[in-house]
Amino acid sequence: MSQDSRMQFPSWRSIGAELLQWTHYTLMMVGFFVVAAGAYLYANPGSVMGLEHGVVQWVAARKAAMQQLRSLGQQTAQATLDAPGDVGEVAQSPASDHLDAAQLAVADYLARRYSIAPRAMRELVAGAWAAGRSEHLDPTLILAVTAVESSFNPYAHSAVGATGLMQVMTSVHRDKFAPYGGPQASLDPLANLHVGAMVLRNAIQRGGSLQAGLRMYVGATSTASSGGYAAKVLAEQARLRQIIAQAQARQARRPAAATQTASDEGRGSAEAVPAAT
């Protein structure tokens, strides 16, 4: 190889010098922007106060929203304890400690199917029951939509900007998240369930039917363009309803079995008395 051909390739030392120089220039630019930003904030203290005020407002709104959710949970939990109803009806207790047998069966099934911690899934099932009661929706429908949309991943994010458990478009439904602290609350599981249930109810009302509402919820213009979305949701809901029916059947058999056992014990005691005499 000739000397001219060797001179065409830069040495490692020259490459290192170039990188060092670019790093130096980059740090100088970063330092310049930091100094400029500090000077601007110093010369305009009102902007700092405005930023601080905005942060304080967001924290206050977020705190109020969480208190509202906890209050709703306590009220519905107390209502469940005072007057328990049919688990097939809409929403009972949002507190996972007060789930009935059917709700626990649903939570255990979903925890196994989607590899979610059982305690966390019970909280989500309780939240779905509370959201269903609030929006007059079947909670199994809310859970079915959540399963299809995000597989119960509260941090799921789509390419079009939908976020959270029920993949709600925060840019479109910003006003609905306002009571919970703003669009950032879309990553909060309970807030996302409540807002998603609200959006779903509105879609069903506008669509005129459950299938049409599900297509509107997913943003499809026709059954063909939805990719079978409604069928997937309804199939998942059917499985959840079957689990509830099985749990109710088991629950109904237990009192009968307990009564039969008590009757057998009483008969055995009565027969033992003459023998002992």
Task: Characterize the quaternary organization of these chains.
Answer: single chain
N-to-C order of helices and strands:
HHHHHHEEHHHH
Q: Mind telling me the C-alpha Rg?
A: 30 Å
Shape assignment? elongated
Secondary-structure content class: mainly alpha
Average pLDDT, all residues: 79
In CATH's first tier, which class applies? Mainly Alpha
Distance between the termini: 121 Å
Number of DSSP strand runs: 2
Helicity level: over 70%
Description of the molecule:
By secondary structure, this protein is mainly alpha-helical. The chain has a single domain, classed as Lysozyme, CATH 1.10.530. 71% of the residues lie in helices and 1% in strands. A two-stranded antiparallel sheet has the order 1-2. The relative contact order is 0.08. The C terminus is likely disordered.
Helix and strand arrangement:
Layout: H1 3-6, H2 12-43, H3 45-82, H4 101-114, H5 118-135, H6 139-150, E1 162-163, E2 168-169, H7 174-177, H8 189-207, H9 210-218, H10 229-276
Antiparallel strand pairs: 1-2
